[in-house]
Design brief:
CATH class of the largest domain in chain A: Alpha Beta
Number of strands of chain A: 17
Number of domains of chain A: 3
Structural class of chain B: alpha/beta
Radius of gyration of chain A: 23 Å
Distance between the termini of chain A: 55 Å
Strand content of chain A: 25-35%
Oligomer: heterodimer
Strand order of the largest sheet of chain B: 9-8-7-10-6-1-4-5-11
Largest sheet of chain A: 9 strands, mixed
Mean pLDDT of chain A: 93
Low-confidence stretches of chain B: none
Distance between the termini of chain B: 34 Å
CATH topology of the largest domain in chain A: FAD/NAD(P)-binding domain
Largest interface: A-B, 14 and 9 residues
Order of helices and strands of chain B: EEEHEHEHEHEEEEHEHHH
Largest sheet of chain B: 9 strands, mixed
CATH class of the largest domain in chain B: Alpha Beta
CATH topology of the largest domain in chain B: Rossmann fold
Shape of chain B: globular
CATH superfamily of the largest domain in chain A: FAD/NAD(P)-binding domain
Strand content of chain B: 15-25%
Number of helices of chain B: 8
Mean pLDDT of chain B: 89
């Protein structure tokens, strides 16, 4: 006996569940297939979500009991050398009041599970512990359903939405997305460190429901293109380090050693002191940028979220791009089903909507950014070192004239990087994000 | 013929934590699973119905979230699932639990005669192995514990033949239905559900019965009906490894010293093994 659905969604992450919510609301018979034991059981991210994008799917997400860890009221950026660091931060009371839940932290195992539960309440069928191993196609190559790893596991569908994440063997197998190159993904490892909530509130200077995010660049990644983060949850701190996979392969550095060294950094250690590691996760990040986005719609199928390489590395945005793309994919599917036409042309309204939205506009704006980071190792070794040298000189009161200190700093810049090189880096950096 | 499987939601760990104030299991922060022995029971029950006909009903007593485990059993081919859940039933020990489950089985029996009740040999959290026998006693069923193989049913004669494990040996027993079996893992792992089976399980409407539906006596249920008080819970110390016989001086010497040890120090066990062995040969 074959199952038959209007839409089959592969993957119960933010993209797949967003689409499922919109489709189920429209009364479309939708099945979501998730390989994990439950939605979220295999998902991980730094842990921030954006209220705006979630509200587009579930306007009443707070009333529905969304498992928010902490509402973010302050964002910090650190630039670290091995033993020192520059820090800037922005805290705004508007984020604790009128714009509450603009950004908040979540634990993905809890959040995705809750999110899937909402889709289920709306009428979508969520099938967990089941892997989609192939797509069904008709003679013309049009996608007509999926094949799962279970007995009698074929499901017919009018449309298939691929939302199975960055590491999608299905995308590679079916050729709907070119197989990823190591330089197009980052490998990040994350440790969740348990601490009493009062300790977290004291160390970060926040009240009970609020939190702080810290994005970190610099020598942490040992010259590799990468970032690290420190996010506050209710009773834990997420601390993660990631870098480009191709560079990991080249440098033979071990992510867990990098994370251990990071935890000992003088800026980091006091924040997590006395904490107990309760979770260790690892994941890929789709960091290839705009140029690696595949064709978003074809005959009988669409691609959304990480599977479509939708990730804004500069602004640490991924799950919101997933949600927005899932929503637009669902809207395109609804329109196509109404017309009874699920051809590539009909489903391309998705690609069009995406191009006109912040998702692809942002990704296009920063299209040069991944390449800039990848090719500018100085950002992750010499520059943090020079920054440390400069700040240290200027802040050390030792009777040396400031003019002489300036000269020492310039000499160090010339020696380590060179003025022309520094100007080039600044220019290319600006070009990549302007 | 109706087969009833009693299953239990247990924490996914063998290192259970206990609340010192209430002496009950701490479930927070630990994922729940279906007791692995119970899944084996469900699989075996489904296999029996596939061969001899009948239906499998799964019951669990627990908190509402135990419906997840019931659905897992349904995906393996069970025909219906009943969640016995009621605040009045909470805090039950094995005495109260077996009373309550027996009441539920009696209610099922009124609709379709229950010929076999199956339970895991024990739950991996409490490890008591008391609930199954408790149910059998209350229902007046023959009980066959530690069953490792179901050899067959004779529908005409209304009998079942099973192999059950005892220390150092196994017995083959034929028993008159109705029976209560508790099963060992050797009976066979649960199947990987088919996709239609899984979908059916997700959509299945699970019946929820409370103390009222079961018309049980309040004094025999829940905390009230539970005379057990748990003093402490701890993991038994790991078993020490046996002696090691060094073969560097040659294999013969090692084997000889092993045999010496066996016949001198473990004489009683050796003679028992030898006599069992000769029995097997004679059979």
């Amino acid at each position: 006996m074959n199952e038959s659905y209007d839409v089959v969604i592969v993957g119960a992450g933010p993209a797949g569940i967003s689409a499922a919510c919109i489709l189920a609301d429209a009364g479309i018979k939708t099945m979501v297939i998730e390989r994990g034991e439950y939605a979220g059981s295999k998902n991980t991210s730094g842990g921030v979500l954006y209220g705006y994008n979630l509200a587009q799917i579930l306007p009443d997400f707070v009333a529905r009991g969304c498992p928010i860890e902490r509402n973010i009221v302050e964002s910090r950026i650190w630039y670290l050398s091995k033993e020192a660091g520059l820090s800037i931060g922005y805290r705004d009371s508007i984020f604790a009041n009128e714009r509450k839940n603009n950004v908040f932290t979540v634990g993905r195992a809890k959040f995705d599970r809750w999110f899937a539960e909402q889709a289920k309440k709306k009428g979508a069928l969520i099938v967990a512990s089941t892997v989609v191993v192939d797509l069904l196609k008709d003679a013309s190559g049009k996608v007509t359903g999926v094949v799962t790893n279970r007995q009698d596991g074929e499901v017919q569908a009018k449309v298939v939405l691929l939302a199975d994440g960055v590491n999608s063997p299905l995308a590679a197998k079916t050729g709907f997305r070119p197989e990823l190159k190591p330089e197009h993904v980052a490998l990040a490892v994350k440790e969740t460190i348990e601490l009493p909530s009062e300790v977290i509130e004291q160390r970060f200077g926040v009240s009970a429901a609020d939190g702080v995010t810290t994005e970190v660049l610099g020598e942490v990644t040992g010259g590799m293109d990468g970032v690290s983060i420190i996010y506050t949850n209710k009773n834990s701190i997420s601390i993660s380090v990631g870098a480009n996979l191709a560079q990991f392969a080249k440098t033979k550095m071990k992510p867990y050693e990098m994370l251990e060294a990071y935890k000992l950094h003088p800026m980091v250690a006091p924040l997590i002191a006395g904490g107990k590691p309760i979770e260790y996760t690892a994941h890929w990040l789709a960091e290839g940028g705009f140029y690696t986005i595949p064709q978003l719609a074809g005959n009988g199928y669409l691609i959304a979220g990480d599977s479509a390489m939708l990730f804004n590395a500069l602004h640490r945005e991924g799950s919101n791009l997933a949600m927005a793309s899932g929503k637009m994919a669902a809207e395109a599917i609804i329109a196509a089903l109404k017309k009874n036409d699920v051809s590539k042309q009909s489903l391309s309204s998705y690609s069009k909507a995406m191009s006109e939205s912040f998702v692809l506009k942002d990704m296009n704006k920063y299209r040069g950014f991944p390449g800039f980071l990848y090719n500018t190792h100085q950002l992750f070794d010499e520059l943090p070192h020079v920054a440390q040298f400069a700040a240290r000189e200027m802040l050390t009161v030792d009777g040396v004239t400031k003019k002489h200190k300036q000269k020492l700093i310039m000499d160090e810049v010339k020696k380590k990087i060179g003025l022309l090189n520094l100007a080039k880096i600044a220019w290319r950096g600006w070009r990549s994000v302007k | 013929m109706q087969i009833v499987c009693c299953v239990k939601q247990v924490p996914d760990t063998t290192q259970v934590k206990i609340d010192p104030a209430t002496n009950t299991l701490v479930r927070a922060g630990v994922e729940s699973i279906c007791n692995p022995y119970d899944l084996v029971a469900v699989e075996a029950a489904v296999k029996i119905t596939e061969k001899y006909g009948g239906s499998v009903s799964v019951i669990t007593m627990g908190i509402p979230s135990a419906e997840v485990q019931l659905r897992e059993c349904l995906s393996l081919g069970a025909h219906q699932a009943i969640l016995v859940s009621d605040r009045a039933l909470a805090g039950a020990d094995t005495l109260a639990t077996s009373y309550t489950l027996a009441s539920a089985i009696q209610k099922l029996n009124e609709i379709d005669p229950v010929q076999i009740v199956m339970c895991g040999k024990q739950a991996i959290d409490g490890d008591t192995a008391q609930t199954g026998p408790g149910i059998a006693t209350r229902l007046g069923f023959t009980q066959l514990t530690y069953v490792s193989q179901i050899i067959g049913l004779d529908i005409q004669k209304q009998t079942i033949t099973v192999r059950r494990e005892i220390e150092n040996a196994s017995q083959i027993i034929e028993a008159k239905l109705p029976v209560m079996l508790t099963v060992e893992l050797e009976l066979g792992a649960a199947r990987y559900a088919t996709l239609p089976g899984l979908i059916k399980a997700i959509k299945h409407e699970i019946k929820v019965w409370g103390a009222k539906e079961l018309s049980c006596t309040a004094e025999k249920c829940g905390l009230k009906g539970s005379p057990t008080s748990v003093k402490t819970i701890f993991a038994p110390p790991p078993r020490k490894g046996g002696p090691v016989y060094d073969t560097t001086e040659g294999m013969d010497q090692a084997v000889n010293s092993l045999l010496d040890t066996l016949f001198q120090k473990e004489a009683a066990i050796m003679s028992e093994i030898l006599s069992n062995d000769s029995k097997v040969k004679n059979a």
